[in-house]
UniProtKB/TrEMBL annotation:
InterPro entries: Indolamine_dOase, Trp/Indoleamine_2_3_dOase-like. It comes from the Eukaryota. One of its GO terms (cellular component) is cytoplasm. The keyword Iron applies. The gene is IDO2. GO terms for biological process: 'de novo' NAD+ biosynthetic process from L-tryptophan; immune system process; L-tryptophan catabolic process to kynurenine. Residues 367-376 have a biased composition (Low complexity). Heme b binds at H347. Keywords: Dioxygenase, Heme, Immunity, Iron, Metal-binding, Oxidoreductase, Tryptophan catabolism. Residues 366-388 are annotated as: Disordered. It comes from Cyanistes caeruleus. This is Indoleamine 2,3-dioxygenase 2. One of its GO terms (molecular function) is heme binding. Belongs to the indoleamine 2,3-dioxygenase family.
Length: 412
């Protein structure tokens, strides 16, 4: 757009607060609520006991006896997010309680209707997403203590014990490590508009540093998550009812729609962080991978999705760096792309350990003549052996995304 007249308005930076993005916590919900108002006691009582109710196969009958509560007494985004988190966990437990061979076709009305209402109010899908599982599911043990794993706890949990806690909390720490990078996006775009190359250079250095810190945070997965527990116990509860052979027809939300609805399961592919970094750096993924990632944006809180879209529509950083001919800027830009490629390679190694190696071991165990049929829970699911909980074909997808990231480098 041409500047009109000679009055030069200072360009507006991308104000994070406009998108419910926190300067301190990024996309994490700052200090989430841990209690719902008293009328929602029946939901909280069930949610607090989920691992035991699932292990004893009682969750479905407890849910069927639950009173049908209206969502109208929920006030503000914090209460809505906690309600969504609670109802999402109860729903995943309800659907997967008996493993992939004992799924249900109908989510009962007393759960489906309020879940639908809360989802509509937040603009989130009626299924567990990254926004519930991680962004809204944390509290500090000591409210004045640091945001470190020893001082963190989840609010609601599912089977998987300490490994589930670790999986959620390490992912949270990756989100937290991204915060300086999210702030750097806003600073970089402001600096381009003001032709302030010094600030732009600093912002790119901060972004590269944040991506490296995310990789360091991701390393903690090894210390806190047991691959066998992840594969055999945890993963099924994150699975959705879209592109999943275990639930090919989706799920009927009784009282909401007579037709089954299909939704992808929870995945960090729904985190807004890498979507925003990709958009800033102008990374172009191949068509089918990009289509999957774009679909994952429907699972983000709408203000976060709007943030990613705003970065996408902003002035092109890559074009600016190219046309500046500035070697220092180009090197800083490339450090960001290289850090992002490394993060994705490291993530692939994690996925190999927690899914493909774990799946091979589970197959070998199944093949042993001594292997008993075993209880439904704890029996590794086979429907998603080669697919992610989001429903992607894991390795072709992840490698394609990593390779197209690398191709985003600017050559000298
Ligand atoms: C045990 C740990 C993890 C496993 C097994 C895992 C597995 C997967 C899988 C299978 C996918 C493919 C998409 C799908 O269908 O779900 C995926 C995508 C993705 N995961 Fe993870 N993941 C793990 C931890 C994390 C963490 C902590 C993050 C950081 C926030 C993360 C970020 C992503 C992103 C951003 C994608 C989309 C692809 C990309 O942009 O590179 N993952 N993950």
């Amino acid at each position: 757009m041409q500047a009109s007249g000679d009055t030069k308005e200072p360009p507006l930076p991308l104000a994070l607060s406009r998108f419910q993005v926190s300067e301190e916590f990024g996309f994490l919900l700052p200090d989430p609520l841990t209690e719902l108002p008293a009328p929602y006691g029946p939901w909280m009582d069930i949610a607090r006991e989920l691992p035991q109710l699932i292990a004893s196969h009682q969750l479905r009958s407890r849910v069927r006896q639950m009173p049908q509560l209206s969502s109208q007494h929920l006030r503000g985004r914090e209460e809505l997010h906690l309600a969504h988190l609670v109802l999402s966990f109860i729903t995943m437990g309800y659907v997967w309680q008996e493993g992939e061979e004992g799924t249900v076709q109908v989510l009962p009305r007393n759960l489906a209707v309020p879940y639908w209402e809360v989802s509509q109010a937040l603009g989130l899908p009626p299924i567990l997403s990254h926004a519930d599982f991680v962004l809204a599911n944390w509290r500090r043990k000591d409210p004045n203590g640091p945001l470190e794993i020893e001082n963190l706890d989840t609010i609601i949990t599912l089977p998987g014990g300490e490994s589930l806690q670790g999986f959620i909390l390490v992912t949270l720490l990756v989100e937290k490590a991204a915060v300086p990078g999210i702030k750097a996006i806003s600073r970089a775009l402001g600096a381009i508009l003001q032709c302030d190359e010094e600030t732009l250079h600093r912002a790119l250095e901060e972004l590269a540093g944040a991506i490296k810190a995310m990789r360091e945070a991701l390393r903690q997965m090894h210390d806190h998550v047991d691959p066998e527990v992840f594969y055999s116990e945890i993963r099924i509860f994150l699975s959705g009812w879209k592109d999943n052979p275990a639930m090919p027809h989706g799920l009927i939300y009784e009282g909401v729609s007579p037709e089954p609805l299909a939704y992808s399961g929870g995945s960090a592919a729904q985190s807004s962080v890498l979507h925003a970094f990709d958009e800033l750096l102008g990374i172009c993924h191949r068509q089918d991978s990009a289509a999957f990632l774009h679909r994952m944006r429907d699972y983000m809180p709408p203000p976060h999705r709007a943030f990613v879209e705003e970065v996408r529509g902003a002035v092109s950083l890559k074009q600016h760096v190219l046309s500046s001919g500035d070697a220092r800027l180009r090197a800083a830009f490339n450090r960001c792309v290289s850090a992002l490629t490394d993060f994705r390679s490291y993530h692939i190694s994690i996925v190999t350990k927690y899914i493909s190696t774990a799946a091979a071991k589970a197959r070998a165990r199944r093949a042993q003549p001594s292997a008993s049929a075993g209880p439904a829970v704890g029996k590794p699911p086979s429907a998603l052996e080669a697919k992610g909980t989001g429903g992607s074909h894991i390795f072709s997808f992840l490698k394609s995304i990593r390779d197209t990231t690398r191709e985003g480098m600017i050559s000298a």
